[in-house]
Write a structure and sequence with these properties.
Blueprint lengths: L1 H43 L17 H5 L4 H7 L1 E7 L2 E7 L7 H15 L8 H9 L5
Antiparallel strand pairs: 1-2
Helix pairs in contact: 1-4, 3-4, 4-5
Bound molecules: heme C (HEC).
Length: about 140
């Protein structure tokens, strides 16, 4: 009887421990996607394909691949004025996301590069932090 109760208590503890490991692991890996869906998708569309001549694409986008050193600033402060992406000129305005932390921006960049552009993400959190210090704030 005693042994069975111990086993039961142990079983609960193990389940709880597993649940917390799973949730720790879950968050950072998926944060980029979750943030993309809440902060970017409404304009850049579900798979980052953009919207005609109104919204530039983020998926398979030459601008994203060639301007990795500008991505953190664009995400935090937005951008405006003419920009050419995959040969199409856009002249719009993107609002900034000043509420996002450095880690959230790093996870978004990870999602943009690795998932939407199939590029290896070599940007470290320290590089993101350095980049953010040097942004030209509009
Ligand atoms: C309200 C609509 C809107 C939202 C929301 C938005 N963007 Fe943009 N984004 C734009 C527009 C419009 C441009 C082009 C701006 C210009 O013409 O200078 C742009 C340009 C960009 C560019 C550079 C051009 C390109 O296509 O590579 C990047 C990178 C980018 N956005 C990333 C993001 C990310 C990441 C998010 C979410 C954190 C986001 N945007 C949210 C509208 C938006």
């Amino acid at each position: 009887m005693v042994a069975r109760r111990t086993a039961l208590v142990f079983g609960i503890a193990a389940t709880t421990a597993m649940a917390s490991v799973v949730s720790c692991d879950y968050k950072p890996r998926n944060q980029g996607r979750v943030l993309y869906e809440s902060e970017c998708q409404s304009c850049h569309m579900e798979n980052g394909q953009g919207l005609g001549e109104l919204m530039p694409p983020l998926a398979n986008a030459d601008y994203v691949k060639e301007n990795t050193e500008a991505l953190a600033c664009i995400i935090r402060y937005g951008m405006e004025g003419p920009v050419v992406v995959n040969g199409v000129e856009y002249n719009g305005q993107m609002p900034g996301n000043r509420q996002l932390s450095e880690i959230e921006i790093a996870n978004l960049i990870h999602y943009l590069l690795e998932v939407l552009n199939e590029q290896e993400n070599t940007m470290t959190i320290n590089e993101v932090r350095e980049q953010l210090k040097g942004c030209k704030k509009p």
